[in-house]
Amino acid sequence: MFTQILYLVSIGFLVISFAKDRKKTHAALVKALRAFLNILPDFATVLAIVGLVLTFLSPDTVAGLIGKKTGVFGMFITSIAGAITLIPGFVAFPLARSLLDKGAGIMQIAVFVSTLMMVGVVTLPLEIKYFGKKVAFLRNILAYLFSFVVAFIIGMVVA
Amino acid sequence: MLRTLKLLWTYKYFLLIVLVDLVILFLHPVTGREVFRHTYFNFAEMISVIPPIFLLLGLLDVWVPRETIIRYLGERSGILGVALSIFLGAAAAGPLYGAFPVAAVMMKKGAKFSNIMIFIGAWSTLKIPMFLFEMSALGIAFAVTRWIASVIGVILITLVIDRLVSRQEQAAIYQRQEEAYIK
Predict the structure, then answer these.
(1) What is the torsional sign of CA A7, A10, A13, A15?
(2) Cβ atoms of B119 and B128 closer than 8 Å
(3) pLDDT at residue A105 is higher than 90
């Protein structure tokens, strides 16, 4: 749905651009392609790693790791799982829901969702490529720690 | 010939993983097929989201003057720049890796470092499409609490990073975009 909107918007802009200035549009397309080809080797590597890792760390495995009453230790496990895996939201949220229904704690799930979105261990090489080691590591470590804060807040508000 | 080898060499890590995948496929066909299925889905997802993002950033690069970005997202953009960075990140679609090339163009155009970090943070965890989905799956209280807490978190994280990364280091990161992007 939103991807479609993204397509519509970008194609709309492309048409306007083409109508206004063909040369500039050509330049834009060349730049877009070059930027893409420049980063494709790293992209491909990350996606291939994710494909490999996800096979051994399936949603079922993640579910098994958390258990029912796991406390802070469970939060630690879910945070690691969230930080490492790169599950798209449309898979992660239903998974989180089913885990909650199975009796997982709200804080364990909150820290999972937050780390999943904010921390990217597998995309780290890509992030380093753009921002360098220091910024990439700092951002991920801070986001990891912050995810626990979010979880405690959600634990207070929702539970 | 040399060109082909050079091209293959840039894909060395990727090819290495494919080799590992093939070994798994040979040793344990069921697991191997799973690996290839997952990898295929990842590439399919990437191919479906990435083209419009790169198209937009190409157009952005050609049409939006540096002055405009500096005015709205640059050193003196203030609170408006912060709000705009959150909005741009939250309005995005697609996984976090889509944010990096966009950030690169924004840096190239003179957006402030802290605004870039806010943009990345917003893209990672404040995306509106995801928020709507999260609300339906985990409840309004859960999603709204997480969203509000995360806005504050993204800003705090940015403040800490901005503090810990010196001006020179920031300048080096900006230089990196010039080299990687123009080439």
Answers:
(1) negative
(2) no
(3) no
Token digits of residue B136: 């339906």
Domain boundaries, chain B: 1-50, 64-182
Helix (H, G, I), strand (E, B) or coil at A58: coil
A46-55, B8-17, B124-133 — most confident range: B8-17
Contact (CB<8Å) A93/B50: no
d(CA A12, CA A104): 45
Chains A and B: how many Cβ contacts under 8 Å? Answer: 232
Nearest residue on chain B to A33, alpha-carbon basis: B54
Residues A124-141, mean pLDDT to the nearest whole number: 94
d(CA A130, CA A140): 14
Look up residue B109 and give its DSSP letter: T
pLDDT over threshold 50, residue B183: no
The CB-side HSE value for B73 (13 A sphere, CA atoms) comes to 27
User: Measured between alpha carbons, how far is residue B72 from residues A129, B75, B92, B110, B121 in Å?
Assistant: 26, 9, 18, 10, 18
Q: Where are the domains of chain A?
A: 57-158
